[in-house]
């Protein structure tokens, strides 16, 4: 195997237990196994890749969902391996921590950009290259959020590899100096690796915690509450936005900047 494409074609089925031609043209990626199970239950479709690093499910409407695991290296891996299929659009359904008082648990965020604090994206482009979504994809998602009468924010998300930082005053002050609206672990990676691979991409983030205040730090109990209360709507908006995009057949062109 001498090329990236040859490697991706060999590795995508190995990581997911799913053959390349079984992936749809439009793809949701997430880092929550229960999203895949909820998707499979809704469409009565098979979950593939149980026991593999990543799991998938594909419905009959031209949409696949993938649980890629957690963290920016795994996000980069799936965005690289998807070059074997080269989907028409990829939407990341993730959770994030709100960094502004204007963001509340249960709000949605459509990032206009992401700060590349995670390190992984440096293997793809110099730090000067911005991590940006495909804005036409976000327009479909935005319309769907409004249709459901939901609150959402736009802004810049800070992406980091760091865990258990909530106690660190210096890091917290650094975050506040960035004017970022939220913090997560994958958005910048999805945007940059999507850009490198010429894959149209976007992110719909659910605010799951408010980590700058002690009572807002995520716990097992609060995470369970957020999942029970907001997961189905989060998934529904992603499914319907991508399905509508597929049905309209609009091209989301990738432009190099």
Automatic annotation (TrEMBL):
- State its Enzyme Commission number(s): 3.2.2.4
What's any one GO cellular component for it? cytosol
InterPro entries assigned to the protein according to its UniProt record, in alphabetical order: AMN_phosphorylase, Nucleoside_phosphorylase_d, Nucleoside_phosphorylase_sf
**Residues covered by the Nucleoside phosphorylase domain:** 26-227
Example GO BP: nucleoside metabolic process
The keyword Thylakoid belongs to this UniProt entry's keyword annotation: no
Note the Pfam families from the entry.
PNP_UDP_1
Signal sequence, start to end: none
Q: Which domain of life is it from?
A: Bacteria
Q: GO molecular function: any one?
A: AMP nucleosidase activity
- Record keywords: Glycosidase, Hydrolase
* Keyword Hydrolase carried by entry: yes
Q: What name does the UniProt record give this protein?
A: AMP nucleosidase
User: What is the source species?
Assistant: Caldithrix abyssi
